[in-house]
Amino acid sequence: MSKLGNLGARLHRGEIGYDFVANRKIWYGLSILITITAIVGLAVRGLNMGIEFQGGAVFTTPKTEVSVSQAQEWAEEASGHDAIVQKLGDGKLRIQVSGIETKEADRVSAELAKDLKVDENQVTGELVGPSWGEQIAQKAWQGLGIFLVLVVIYLAIAFEWRMALAAFVALIHDITITVGIYALVGFEVTPGTVIGLLTILGYSLYDTVVVFDSLKEQTKDITKQTRWTYSDVANRSINSTLVRSINTTVVALLPVAGLLFIGGGFLGAGMLNDISLSLFVGLAAGAYSSIFIATPLVADLKEREPQMKALRKRVMAKRAQAASAPAGAVDEPLTDEVDDDAAAAVVGPRTQPASRSRGRGRPSGKRR
């Protein structure tokens, strides 16, 4: 068995683990800091909306040795508007100019052909109206709202309202960070970006539901024992699914990273950046929020319940009693009300004491 597989098995059995829930204030503070940074970046720099949302024209030139900066300068001089130029993988240029109409587009196309020293017919142009972009944005917001409502309803029915609330907070956390990164980096927001944002919600929710399912299973009879609090079991649920979440996220991030860094960076396929950046940031943020935000938040909410408060008091009292007991004292049974399967589900594997009569009367260990 590989080292990673062995680590995952030990985490699942509860033999080792990191106390995520006890350190939740650190993760809350870190998330708040990142979220505030994203919001400030969004407020100060704003989003670089593509022409699909603003309206304008897109020009595609033939293969050329002209630099991106030079083409951008020519396009802005010809149109009188800001231009975005991207170098495509085959050496062509994609020039976007927002806020121009059909007559202006024909003139700009002719001037670009003259500057690039190519035939005017080789520079293709495409006009995009702002009303189409408004419709896309409106539909995207509607889709996002419907998705969030359905997610909350489903989780409230399948699990409970506290888990639904925690998952909702985690999703908003992921969206805010992703949009903030877009504002800080300055990548163009296109319909592909919207698709990427909607896609990452499913990935984020998947990791969260996996942990919640484990937590629900392990806390069925939690009030019938006095060894573990709800936070203890929540922490074990995170650790038992930790390697699975990491593996899933890494496998999903690898092809997305290829799109973003190789396709968009080295090969110059700038059109891949709009969707790959949202997927890359969203997948990473989703894995983080499911481990460090959603489940600790559920534990915080559950610990406020009267029965969980009473359970915590009993657990703390028993631990204090065990700490003050003389060395070698035998622990009392967990409880008579919990069967063996329920106790194992809650407390995990237990080490059985060695029999005191083992080998008694048989020094050599062999039967006479």
TrEMBL record:
Residues 111-303 form the Protein export membrane protein SecD/SecF C-terminal domain. The chain crosses the membrane at residues 26-44, 140-157, 164-187, 193-215, 246-269, 275-299. Keywords: Cell membrane, Membrane, Protein transport, Translocation, Transmembrane, Transmembrane helix, Transport. Residues 340-368 are annotated as: Disordered. The keyword Nucleus does not apply. It comes from the Bacteria. It is found in: Cell membrane. It is a multi-pass membrane protein. Pfam families: Sec_GG (PF07549), SecD_SecF_C (PF02355). InterPro entries: SecD/SecF_arch_bac, SecD/SecF_bac, SecD/SecF_CS, SecD_SecF_C, SecD_SecF_C_bact, SecF_bac. Residues 357-368 have a biased composition (Basic residues). Part of the Sec protein translocase complex. Interacts with the SecYEG preprotein conducting channel. SecDF uses the proton motive force (PMF) to complete protein translocation after the ATP-dependent function of SecA. Belongs to the SecD/SecF family. SecF subfamily. NCBIfam families: 2A0604s01, transloc_SecF. Forms a complex with SecD. Part of the essential Sec protein translocation apparatus which comprises SecA, SecYEG and auxiliary proteins SecDF. Other proteins may also be involved. This is Protein-export membrane protein SecF. It comes from Streptomyces fuscus.
